[in-house]
Amino acid sequence: MNTKYLIASLGLASVLSFGANAAVHQVNAQEAQNLQSMGSISVSQIGSSPMDMRQELAAKAEKAGASSYRVVELKEGSQWHATAELYK
């Protein structure tokens, strides 16, 4: 799978997911232009899925006080890794 497909999967998963992390939402690059950056976070998991990664990113973003986040890097394989920019 290529990175663009995985980022799109994370985006789709965020639209379909209505969980405890509903207060924090994922944005695209165009939406992020109107927001104030407040740093970045990253998550790594073994044998993960796009939905699991999205949930962990949203939980970390919420804990950091962000209102939204944008995935800027995603690597898959036996060890998944994602980095996201946080926004107020």
Automatic annotation (TrEMBL):
Lineage: Bacteria, Pseudomonadati, Pseudomonadota, Gammaproteobacteria, Enterobacterales
Domain of life, per lineage: Bacteria
InterPro entries according to UniProt: BhsA/McbA_stress_biofilm_assoc, Dodecin-like, Stress_YhcN-like, YdgH-like_sf, YdgH/BhsA/McbA-like_dom
Record domain YdgH/BhsA/McbA-like: where: 35-88
Protein name per UniProt: DUF1471 family stress response protein YhcN-B
Organism per entry: Citrobacter enshiensis
Record keywords: Signal
Signal sequence region: 1-22
